[in-house]
Structure formats: C-alpha cells, structure tokens
C-alpha cells in the first residue's frame, strides 16, 4: 500500500511518522499541534476537518464516526457489554452509561485531569456499588469501547470487593480489561492504543497495568481476580 502524507498529499520522502490510524505525515512539515486521540501532527489545527476537543485538537479521521451523542453511545454499548461478558466480566446490576462533556473529564476527588471515563460509586449497607458511568463525548469508537471496558471493570469490582483497593491495583485491573477488549478488535488503532497502554509511564495506570498483567501471566487471571477481590492484593509469588 502506498502511503500519502496527510499534509502535502504526496508519498512521504525520507522520514515520516504514523498516527494510530497508520496515516503518514512527512517529518519535514512543521508541527503546531497534534491530535490528542491518535497523535497525528498538524501544521495548523485550524485547517479544514480539524476540530477542538476540550482544550485539545482532534483530527478529521478521529472526528469521523466519533461517539458524539447518547444515541451514538447506545449503538456501541451493547457490543462492549457483550464482549466483556464473554471474558467473564458481567454485572449483576445494570449501570447507566452517559456521555459527559466534550473533551477530557476532571476527577475532583483526586484532582486528576484528562481522564476519559469516570465510574461513580457509593458505599451502602450491602457494600460498594457502582451508581453510574460517565464517558467523554467525542471519542473514536475504539477509544470509547476501551474506556467503557475499563469503567465496566470498576463497576464489576465494586460489586465484589469488600473495601477500597490501592489505586495502582484497581486501575491496573481495569486497564487489563480494556487491553483485553482492544486485543479482540484487530484494528491498527486498537493495536497501537494497546501498545501505548503498555508503554504508559504513569505510576498508577501504566505501572498498575504492567503489575497486574505480570501477575496474570504468572498465575492466571482467575487466580489474580480471586485474590484481588478476597484479599485486596495480588497473589503472593509462589502462593
């Protein structure tokens, strides 16, 4: 397949870079901004087809088919729920999923900015329970699906855990769920997004993902999830 540069339209000469969609851009072009979702560079983010996504830029490819409305979300939610159920991650009580603001969300309780989804939980007589899930509007279907798979993981854990988990452990488990969903998609973007999760240097999401994944490779996912739910920790090595 012959690549065409996203800026000049010609075949890239010399070095070039690929977005998560595997769209090529000549390295010689100036970079004024990047698509926050796929990494595609732009000499001018005000060019036709580019749009704002929160305070960031979004490229034409990521805007095409994006999950912008609740109706869009309803078209994809059942597929993600079914895929997670096939992995054994199924909720006993349905949790409502809604779209929030157009752009990254802010988590006031932790002061963390830039998340794509939030699972609201509460403590009641029967323990923790997930009340609702919010996901940022304007995501690509792949980003939306991975984010929903992650948040369904929080809801699944809330139904089963007896107390709060260390953040790297809880987020690591949910990132593993998102990674499992992405692995089943088989698209270039899903593959690249999963690779970016594996390379993430964030001490909670990235380190947590690698920690949980390593435990799964060593003892198996059933052992890991059982230990997390019953003890609030990963299985002991050799245990």
TrEMBL record:
<protein>
    <recommendedName>
        <fullName>Protein DA1-like domain-containing protein</fullName>
    </recommendedName>
</protein>
<feature type="domain" description="Protein DA1-like">
    <location>
        <begin position="129"/>
        <end position="194"/>
    </location>
</feature>
<dbReference type="InterPro" id="IPR022087">
    <property type="entry name" value="DA1-like_dom"/>
</dbReference>
<dbReference type="InterPro" id="IPR045218">
    <property type="entry name" value="DA1-like"/>
</dbReference>
<dbReference type="Pfam" id="PF12315">
    <property type="entry name" value="DA1-like"/>
</dbReference>
């Amino acid at each position: 397949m012959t690549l065409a540069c996203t800026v000049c339209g010609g075949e890239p000469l010399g070095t070039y870079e690929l977005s998560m969609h595997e769209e090529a851009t000549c390295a010689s072009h100036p970079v004024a901004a990047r698509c926050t979702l796929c990494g595609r560079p732009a000499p001018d983010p005000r060019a036709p087809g580019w749009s704002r996504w929160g305070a960031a830029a979004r490229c034409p490819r990521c805007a095409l088919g994006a999950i912008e409305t609740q109706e869009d979300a309803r078209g994809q939610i059942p597929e993600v729920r079914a895929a997670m159920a096939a992995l054994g991650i199924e909720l006993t009580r349905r949790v409502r999923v809604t779209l929030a603001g157009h752009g990254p969300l802010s988590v006031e309780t932790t002061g963390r900015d830039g998340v794509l989804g939030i699972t609201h939980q509460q403590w009641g007589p029967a323990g923790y329970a997930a009340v609702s899930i919010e996901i940022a509007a304007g995501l690509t279907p792949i980003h939306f699906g991975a984010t929903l798979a992650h948040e369904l993981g929080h809801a699944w854990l809330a139904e089963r855990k007896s107390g709060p988990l260390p953040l790297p452990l809880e987020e690591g488990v949910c990132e593993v769920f998102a990674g499992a969903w992405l692995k089943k998609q088989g698209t270039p973007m899903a593959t690249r997004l999963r690779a970016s999760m594996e390379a993430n240097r964030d001490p909670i999401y990235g380190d947590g993902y690698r920690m949980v994944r390593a435990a799964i490779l060593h003892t198996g996912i059933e052992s890991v999830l059982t230990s997390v739910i019953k003890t609030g920790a990963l299985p002991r090595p050799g245990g």
